[in-house]
């Protein structure tokens, strides 16, 4: 049984795995980290490993306190991954993106894969059928879009996610919802169409906090798997153990 932890820039997601089965999921804020992990380990004393992927401001030392209880692995660029990393700036590539690419490589072998993670940022990660990680794109996530419209203008209100009534927004709130939500959806559909022009067939994996909202609005039919990063963390960790 292992405890996997995904530290994103908005929230921390965690899951206890028994082999490849999720036993329980958790979502919490960074400030709750220590308390929450203690609670989880109390509930699941059989956890033998704590496996972490962090792009947020939480560093490895925040987890060292748990080394007395179980094996702690904090993923870094030095770890072995199941793909050939063709990124030009490998040391700055997000660990979350590497874990997503690791999971996509292991879960969907011998095919092109596009992973879209709609979280704080939307990240696009492409791994080709020869397991070459090519890179992709980084774009502002949904909440970032609402916040930036408010923070960088004199008069726009700070709104929270709401599906627009129409792409022609006939009020300030509706114009903002249309711009944010439709811009988000058109961007993703546009990227997918672009990839389709160059790569004949590929599988699309959609994940992240906004994946459920997105899945039903995209022209391209894709299924959201909000657990994909944690599943990938579990699998990539197993791969590392088998190949270290
Ligand atoms: N309870 C919530 N708190 C914060 N964001 C949420 C929540 N529920 C859904 N979201 C959406 O999920 C996004 C954050 O997704 P997530 O994948 O957790 O981000 P990250 O991995 O970057 O921390 C936000 O942009 C927001 O639109
Ligand atoms: C782009 C990200 C901030 C996404 O993080 P998230 O949306 O999961 O919070 C993260 O992948 C990151 O810090 N990347 C570093 C730059 C790069 O990947 O090239
Ligand atoms: K993301």
Automatic annotation (TrEMBL):
Keywords: ATP-binding, Coenzyme A biosynthesis, Cytoplasm, Kinase, Metal-binding, Nucleotide-binding, Potassium, Transferase. It comes from the Bacteria. GO terms for biological process: coenzyme A biosynthetic process. Substrate binds at residues 87, 94-97, 172. K(+) binds at residue 117. GO terms for cellular component: cytoplasm. Its cofactor is K(+); NH4(+). The active site is at residue 96. ATP binds at residues 6-13, 120. One of its GO terms (molecular function) is ATP binding. It catalyses: (R)-pantothenate + ATP = (R)-4'-phosphopantothenate + ADP + H(+). Its EC number is 2.7.1.33. It is found in: Cytoplasm. A monovalent cation. Ammonium or potassium. InterPro entries: ATPase_NBD (IPR043129), Type_III_PanK (IPR004619). Pfam families: Pan_kinase. Pathway: Cofactor biosynthesis; coenzyme A biosynthesis; CoA from (R)-pantothenate: step 1/5. Transmembrane segments: none annotated. Homodimer. HAMAP family: Pantothen_kinase_3. Catalyzes the phosphorylation of pantothenate (Pan), the first step in CoA biosynthesis. Belongs to the type III pantothenate kinase family. This is Type III pantothenate kinase. The gene is coaX.
């Amino acid at each position: 049984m292992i405890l996997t932890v995904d530290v994103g820039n908005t929230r921390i997601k965690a899951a206890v795995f028994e082999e490849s089965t999720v036993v329980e999921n958790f979502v919490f804020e960074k400030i709750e980290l220590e308390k929450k992990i203690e609670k989880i380990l109390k509930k699941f004393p059989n956890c033998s490993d704590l496996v972490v992927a962090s792009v947020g401001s939480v560093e490895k030392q925040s987890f060292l306190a748990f080394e007395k209880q179980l094996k702690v692995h904090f993923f870094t660029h030095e770890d072995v991954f199941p793909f050939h990393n063709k990124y030009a700036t490998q040391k700055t590539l997000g660990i979350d993106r590497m874990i997503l690419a690791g999971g996509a490589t292991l879960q969907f072998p011998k095919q092109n894969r596009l992973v879209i993670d709609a979280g704080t940022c939307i990240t696009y990660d492409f791994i080709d059928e020869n397991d070459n990680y090519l890179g992709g794109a980084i774009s502002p996530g949904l909440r970032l879009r609402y916040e930036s419209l408010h923070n960088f203008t004199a008069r726009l209100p700070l709104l929270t996610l709401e599906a627009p009534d129409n792409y022609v927004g006939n009020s300030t709130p509706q114009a903002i919802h249309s711009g944010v939500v439709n811009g988000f959806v058109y961007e993703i559909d546009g990227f997918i169409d672009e990839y389709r022009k160059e790569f004949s067939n590929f599988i699309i994996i959609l994940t992240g906090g906004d994946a459920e909202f997105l899945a039903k609005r995209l022209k391209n039919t894709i299924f959201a798997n909000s657990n994909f990063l944690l599943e990938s963390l579990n699998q990539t960790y197993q791969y590392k153990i088998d190949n270290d």
